[in-house]
Design a protein that fits this description.
The chain is an alpha/beta fold. Helix content is 34%, strand content 18%. The structure holds S-adenosyl-L-homocysteine.
Length: 354
């Protein structure tokens, strides 16, 4: 069955055949400007609302909502309507903006050992509608607190560039209909080189973030297995080309793992790679979040700070992503992966999530 955020505007015009033409505008604005469920689009007649709700249900069933103690991070756990697979979406409020982190697949096939989603394996690609709906549902929640969504990061469960066509469909809807500009959209990839090349041919200059985590092949082969297929030299070349085509600075993500990739030598190797791009790549340091299936811990705060300082001394701009919502297991896949799905009252603390 088709779900609510799947149809394009043109598809919906067929579904609305026989209705006055302005109904399409009313519905589209209700869905993508006001983030309303059709039942609550008061400009539509009751019979039509009912028909829409029946024929085009939402694709995400809310199972659990985890809220950080200060309320600035909300993590949604959904079950997909069609086959019940769990996926997650995270809504993060900052002082003057709000960001939504969306999943692009149910599970992930990339098998990065430190990642909770990678540990749980792959179920299926998400459709464009299932990706778009995550943004709409988060925006609906934000609207209740008079907040607007400013940024979308494709950094939830899954590998966006293994599902590029559906992800691109979502980018177009989010850009064209929800109205978030390309510079506020970021696609994060494990480093699928053909996907980066496809992205470079797309018309909008979205931000590219690459999960590097190691700057030499021997270590990256271990941490990010897809590196064996697309080694660093190839990956870097595709980043250079993306930068050249899109004129958008590339970001490298680096989860700092104690004693594994946080030495001075690692920082120097990383800086070398960054400086091969012009302007040099920006580094986003993420202290590793612990996951059940990976024994190593994140670097100490002192080590994170020293690593960041060294990068800066070497001429590379680096920021540290504070571990938002650690107590609600907000890192990729931690809420959905490998645990029975239950409805739990909020707030949920990290030690409650097994
Ligand atoms: N598959 C994509 C996007 C999803 S993961 C990618 O690999 O980029 C989003 C980011 O979270 C990636 O940089 C990923 O490496 C990182 N990540 C995954 N598990 C983590 C953990 N346990 N601690 C810190 N970062 C993690």
């Amino acid at each position: 069955m088709n779900t609510l955020y799947e149809p394009t505007r043109e598809d919906l015009s067929h579904i609305l055949e026989g209705e006055p033409r302005y109904r399409l505008d009313q519905l589209w604005t209700g869905l993508y400007t006001h983030f309303l469920h059709p039942n609550n689009i008061s400009t539509l007649p009751a019979a039509l609302r009912q028909r829409l709700a029946q024929n085009l249900p939402e694709s995400l069933i809310e199972v659990k909502r985890a809220e950080s103690d200060n309320g600035d991070t909300i993590k949604f756990l959904w079950n997909l309507l069609h086959d019940q697979h769990p996926i997650e979406t995270v809504l993060m409020y900052y002082e003057n903006r709000a960001t939504v982190c969306v999943s692009t697949q149910a599970g992930c096939a990339m098998a990065c050992g430190f990642c909770a989603t990678g540990q749980a394996g792959f179920n299926r690609h998400l459709t464009t509608g299932e990706i778009v709906e995550q943004v709409v549902r988060a925006a609906r929640e934000a609207a209740q607190h008079n907040r607007r969504i400013d940024n979308i990061v494709f950094m939830g469960m899954g590998e966006p560039l293994a599902n590029e066509p559906n992800v691109w469909g979502a980018v177009e809807r989010i850009h064209g209909d929800i109205g978030i500009s390309a510079r506020h959209l970021t696609i994060s990839t494990v480093g699928i080189v053909p996907g980066i090349r496809t992205l470079a041919t797309r018309p909008l200059p979205v931000n590219l973030a690459v999960s590097l985590h190691a700057a030499r092949n021997s270590l990256r082969d271990e941490l990010v297995p897809i590196n064996k297929r697309y080694p660093l030299e190839m990956l870097l070349q595709s980043c250079k080309d993306y930068l050249y085509t899109k004129n958008r600075r590339v970001t490298f993500e680096w989860a700092l793992i104690d004693g594994v990739n946080d030495t001075d030598q690692d920082a120097r190797e990383l800086a070398d790679l960054c400086l091969q791009l012009t302007p040099s790549a920006h580094v986003n340091l993420i202290p590793l979040n612990p996951t059940p299936g990976w024994p190593t811990v994140g670097s100490s705060p002192a080590r994170v700070a020293a690593f960041q300082r060294l990068l800066r001394d070497l001429g590379v701009n680096a920021t540290t992503r504070n571990n938002r919502g650690t107590e609600i297991a907000a890192a990729c896949g931690q809420l959905a992966a490998g645990q029975p799905v239950t409805v739990t009252p909020k707030p949920i603390r990290h030690h409650d999530i097994k």
